Amino acid sequence: MESFSHNYTLNNQNNRLFPGVIYNWALFERDVRRDVRNCVLFLAFFFVVNITVAAILHAAYVLAEASDFNDPEALNAMISESSGSSAGMLSIVGIVCGSCVFFILRKRRFITDLALPSAELMTPKILIVLIIATQGIQCASSIIATLVDTLLPRGLSIIDSYGEVIDSLFTPLGLVYIVLVGPIFEELVFRGAMLGNLRRFGDNFAIIVSSLLFGFYHMTIMQIPFSFIVGLLLGYVTVRWSIRVAILLHIVTNGLSVLISGLKSEILMGVCGLALIACLIATIAMAIHWRKPLKARIRAGAAYYPYTYINGFSSIALWLFLVVTTVVGIVQVIDF
Predict the structure, then answer these.
(1) Are 211 and 232 in contact (CB under 8 A)?
(2) Closest Cα partner for 177 from 82, 99, 124, 63?
(3) Other C-beta atoms lying within 10 Å of the C-beta of residue 98
(4) pLDDT the model gives residue 121
(5) I need a surface site. Which of 208, 279, 297, 334 has the fewest CB within 10 A?
(6) Taking a C-beta distance cutoff of 8 angstroms, is the pair 233, 133 a contact?
(7) 202: left (phi over 0), alpha (psi -120 to 50) or beta
């Protein structure tokens, strides 16, 4: 547990500020801005290490395999082919190296107290409900993306540009990255490190900020809203149960997405489409049915200081990150 050297303290038992104590809110506001900024900067460095390692390995592979550097067309063809065939391996090595450097710089343990099982028991019934919710969110995201595509100029498609990214990872190592390696390291970074660090300012604030960074981290227009909403759910799961449950849910969600994306039969695709619509309806029904306990949970996780969100979202680094990743996502759609 991180200790404070300022004029406010944390209850080490439950990450809550002590009631009835007078705090120096100026220092509190400064720490909110500083911690949000640090999360963004660490994530940016994670990106740099991830991309740099992948680029170096790709360049080394091309240099080792290329036979004629005087033929530009053959060289470009080889680079394009190797980018697709090695995308899975490069993604795995990149995210592992980026995550390791991220945690080394933060000087934190990989697994925090969020990994410990909570007093509430995760039952198979609850896990099934959560899986249904993620598929319902996926269905809503697909419907919205389809509607947006109809409004875009001819030749532009956020669905097709996203499909191109996914297709490049449909290799054995690519599937290992999507279904196993990616979910584990993403949860350790976003729910373990970021949410765990920001949680002292309120559970809701920590979940929202970490989910926002998680959504824009994916840098594809179709994935950003879906990943943000799923990030909220994974953050809630982490806080209420543990990060281990969030990792399991993330793995199952990605696995189902890969399974559905790989279907070739129109009949099976139609059946899965109807199943996703059913999940969306069930998700809405469950949200309405459990609205009172959900509201109680939201109230319990409220920020301790009324200006926490204003100070947190005043970070220039945060807005710069959101703008840059959005621009990258738009460029991907245009280039496609």
Answers:
(1) yes
(2) 99
(3) 23
(4) 76
(5) 334
(6) yes
(7) left
Full DSSP string of 36-97: HHHHHHHHHHHHHHHHHHHHHHHHHHHHHH-S-TT-HHHHHHHHHHHHHHTHHHHHHHHHHH
Question: Cβ-count burial of 162 within 10 angstroms (0-12 exposed, 13-18 middle, 19+ buried)?
Answer: buried
CA-based radius of gyration for the chain: 21
Q: Which two tokens stand for residue 134?
A: 């993620």
State CA 293 to chain mean position distance.
Answer: 26
Q: Which residues pair with 11 in a beta bridge?
A: 16
pLDDT digits (tens, 9 = 90+) for 38-78: 888 888 888 787 778 777 776 776 666 655 555 556 555 55
Report the C-alpha gap between 187 and 336 in whole angstroms.
30
3-state secondary structure of 292: helix
List the structure tokens of 85: 């065939």
> What is the pLDDT at residue 248?
92
Q: Which 3-state string (H, E, C) describes 219-255?
A: CCCCHHHHHHHHHHHHHHHHHHCCHHHHHHHHHHHHH
Return d(Cα 141, Cα 48) in angstroms, integer.
Answer: 29
Distance, CA of 336 to CA of 331 (rounded, Å): 8
Distances (CA, A) of 275 to 134, 141, 160, 223, 241: 13, 15, 22, 20, 27
The distance of Cα 188 from the centroid of its chain, to the nearest Å, equals: 10
